[in-house]
Amino acid sequence: MHIRGPSNKSAMSGFLPGSVIIILFLFFIILLLILQILTLLFCYLVSGRLSPQLKKVRQTKPRPARQNMNSVGEACTELKREYDQCFNRWFAESFLKGERGGEPCGDSFKRYQLCVQRAIREKDIPVDGVDFMGPNKDKPES
After folding, report:
1. Phi, psi (5° rounding) for residue 60?
2. Angle at 109 between CA 107 and CA 114, to 5 degrees
3. Is 107 exposed, middle or buried (0-12, 13-18, 19+ CB in 10 A)?
4. Rounded to the nearest 5°, which phi and psi values hold at 12?
5. How far is the C-alpha of 42 from the C-alpha of 39, rounded, in Å?
6. CA distances for 76 relative to 62, 65, 66, 70, 118, angstroms
7. Burial of 61 by CB count in 10 Å (0-12 exposed, 13-18 middle, 19+ buried)?
8. At 126, is the secondary structure helix, strand, or coil?
9. Which residues of 51-60 are buried (b: 16+ CB within 10 A; e: fewer)?
C-alpha cells in the first residue's frame, strides 16, 4: 500500500499566492489615489464656480473688530462711550501692568449708571430681582 503525502494544491487552497496579494494591495492604493485626485478636482471646480462671490467678499472693506453698542437710553449713549473709553484706557495702561488700586473711572461710571437707571424707569423695563447696579448696588432713584 502506498500512502501519499499532502499535495501542494490542498496546502495552498486557503491562501492567496503572494503576487495576488501584492496586486490587490497596489489596486487599493491606486484606488485611494484616484479618490483623492477626484476630491481635489471637485474642490477646485467648486471654488472656481464660487470665485466671483469670494472675490466680492474679499473686496469689501473689513469691519472693525468691535463696534460700540448704544446704551439702553439714547441720552446715555455718549456717557457710555465716555466710560468705555476711560475703562479701556485704564485696563490697557494700568490693570494689565499690575496696577489694580483705586476706583478707575468712578465718576464717569456713576453718571452713566444714573442715566441708565433713569432710562430703565422711563421705558418701564421690569428689572425686579436683577442684580446689575454695579459695585455699590444702588437702587434706582425715584
Report:
1. -70, 155
2. 100
3. exposed
4. -95, -5
5. 5
6. 28, 23, 19, 8, 9
7. exposed
8. coil
9. eeeeeeeeee
Residue type at position 68: N
Instruction: Give per-residue pLDDT as tens, 22-80.
Output: 888 888 899 989 999 888 878 777 766 555 554 555 555 555 555 667 888 888 999 99
> Does the pTM of the predicted model rise above 0.85?
no
CB atoms within 10 A of CB 17: 9
Count of Cβ atoms closer than 10 Å to residue 75 Cβ: 13
142 contact partners, CB below 8 Å, separation of at least 6: 121
The C-alpha cell 474642490 sits at 43
Distances (CA, A) of 132 to 27, 53, 94, 120, 121: 68, 44, 25, 12, 14
The answer to whether the CB of 141 falls within 8 A of the CB of 117 is: yes
Cα 95–Cα 96–Cα 98 angle in degrees, nearest 5: 65
Q: Give 84-127 pLDDT, tens digit per residue.
A: 999 999 888 888 888 887 778 989 999 999 998 898 888 888 87
